[in-house]
Amino acid sequence: MIYFVETHANEQRQTLCRWVERFHEEGKKVQIVVDSTMAAQHLDQLLWTYSEGSFIPHRIFQVKASDSLIEPVVITIGEVRLEGFDVLVCDAQVHLDFMKQYPVAIHFILRDDEDRKQESRLMWQSARDQGVQLHHVPYTSPTRRPY
Prior knowledge:
It is built from 4 helices and 7 strands; from the N terminus they run βαβαβββαβαβ. The chain is of the alpha/beta class.
């Protein structure tokens, strides 16, 4: 199942945190894909501070021989497949074939970026043509949960 979630560029990471919190509360292991070290560090800080009432144990993934992933939320830079994770949340552009490796994936449609909206349309069409189960989540205000 891939959720196509509408948001605005300046609200994407807050929306991302709400979705991560939802899946964490459901007991799911969540992988977040970003495109840079700076983005990983920003999300790391945001996950610690975005909500006073919640705590989401997480960390930035670093490749080490003895790296055991005990945190339920892990941020990766780029498309690194982590075994045992239930949900993929895409802060960056991720290929459809990578998303299909997870039971659930979240893709953000940026309503205020025409190029990204078009990329999202093409991805939706490709996923639909491949028989992927899809769910469109229309835009909701940042003060309301979209689910």
